[in-house]
DNA sequence: TAGTAAACTTACTCGCGAGTAGATTACTGA
DNA sequence: TCAGTAATCTACTCGCGAGTAAGTTTACTA
């Protein structure tokens, strides 16, 4: 039932989605939707929260805290693109639809903030263990925010290019962000510090 | 009148914006809006097209074609953040509201594609003049897409932190993308190849 | 197998807002 | 001053969809 709602919301957006269509797609009648999930807003909110939970869960499950920061980041980035590839609807509801709806933008912002904070924390640790100058928490958060934005943009690219593998997007992100375009132009590329098991059939 | 519509659409989104409010904010009556701009959809579309035109105009005016690619990119990035800071409403309509509205997402995608193509072209030239291996047009477009996404994300950050200067965002973007996080962590930072005139009062 | 509670549906109400018909005001020229 | 017309507004219609009242079926109990 949340699946049906997520599908309809992702296609049509909050306002253009009708409760009739959601009910029909879920194979039940409208009053049942109201009985179980309350109003349309609560239903949308439930979709967002479920998707956000799944996403943050997937990311934090991947980034084992005992790994060095760079490897954690790599694992998190991989998990992120995997999630987007497997839950396209959920992704679209959160970041295409809910963001612009003032009433719900806050929930998405909260989910996003969780991710940004984690990334900022990884940066801080990477910088610390490299012995470099700490740029300060605000600057770190700004960079983390930007990295997450890059990921979101590549996620859209992934949705528009269904035959591209999540691993490709993840590698591209690490290349851009860790190596920098300047290095890429000089022909240097980023490589995973640990061997990546290729998925079967590739 | 387009200003009023842009303001209302940016606050409320397409569906939640009412033509009554737009008319009131523009200081005219509703039938006048319909007389001059047609339907609600056409009005929204007009807002998008105007904003898109202003944005692409600002960017291409900044990036003088005789400059080296890196400097063009720097100029374009600066112009972009300047635009976002000065036309917050227009930016929000395009990238927060219109993106999720299936009917209008195509127009925004078209504007975005223009920008991505320009950036991809700059990459290609930078790579060529550095004598590096050409990664192929698809890969270049993917990277350009990602860079634009990073810019969009930093634009949001800029809107949420009104006391931050567009130049700061522009520098941060170049740092991340040209230098790479790996270099940043080692304490290296990107510097503009030409001196940047500071705005007065800084 | 009648009685009853739970699960579910049909068929409505009601408000909101896009879009418009017809009245009204402001100009123009004689 | 006033006929004619252009510009603009007031006050409506009408459809759509969120939300619900009342009825109906299903499932269970004794």
From TrEMBL, chains A, B:
HTH tetR-type domain location: 1-55
InterPro entries: DesT_TetR_C, Homeodomain-like_sf, HTH-type_TetR-like_transc_reg, HTH_TetR, Tet_transcr_reg_TetR-rel_C_sf
Source organism phylogeny: Bacteria, Bacillati, Actinomycetota, Actinomycetes, Cryptosporangiales
Keywords annotated in UniProt: DNA-binding, Transcription, Transcription regulation
Protein name: TetR/AcrR family transcriptional regulator
PANTHER family named in the record: HTH-TYPE TRANSCRIPTIONAL REGULATOR RUTR, POSSIBLE TRANSCRIPTIONAL REGULATORY PROTEIN (PROBABLY TETR-FAMILY)
DNA-binding region: 18-37
DNA-binding among keywords: yes
């Amino acid at each position: 039932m949340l699946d049906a709602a997520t599908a309809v919301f992702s296609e049509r957006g909050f306002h253009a989605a009708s409760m009739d269509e959601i009910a029909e797609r879920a194979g039940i009648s409208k009053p049942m939707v109201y009985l179980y999930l309350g109003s349309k807003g609560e239903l949308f909110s439930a979709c967002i929260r479920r998707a956000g939970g799944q996403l943050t869960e997937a990311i934090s499950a991947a980034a084992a805290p005992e790994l060095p920061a760079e490897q954690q980041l790599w694992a998190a980035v991989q998990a992120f693109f995997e999630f987007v590839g497997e839950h396209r609807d959920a992704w679209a509801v959160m970041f295409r639809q809910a963001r612009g709806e003032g009433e719900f933008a806050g929930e998405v912002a909260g989910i996003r903030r969780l991710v940004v904070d984690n990334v900022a924390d990884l940066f801080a640790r990477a910088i610390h263990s490299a012995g470099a100058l700490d740029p300060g928490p605000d600057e770190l958060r700004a960079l983390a925010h930007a990295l997450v934005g890059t990921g979101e943009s590549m996620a859209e690219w992934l949705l528009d290019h269904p035959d591209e593998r999540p691993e490709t997007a993840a590698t591209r992100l690490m290349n851009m962000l860790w190596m920098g375009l300047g290095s890429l132009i000089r022909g240097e590329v980023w490589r995973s510090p640990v061997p990546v098991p290729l998925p079967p059939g590739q």
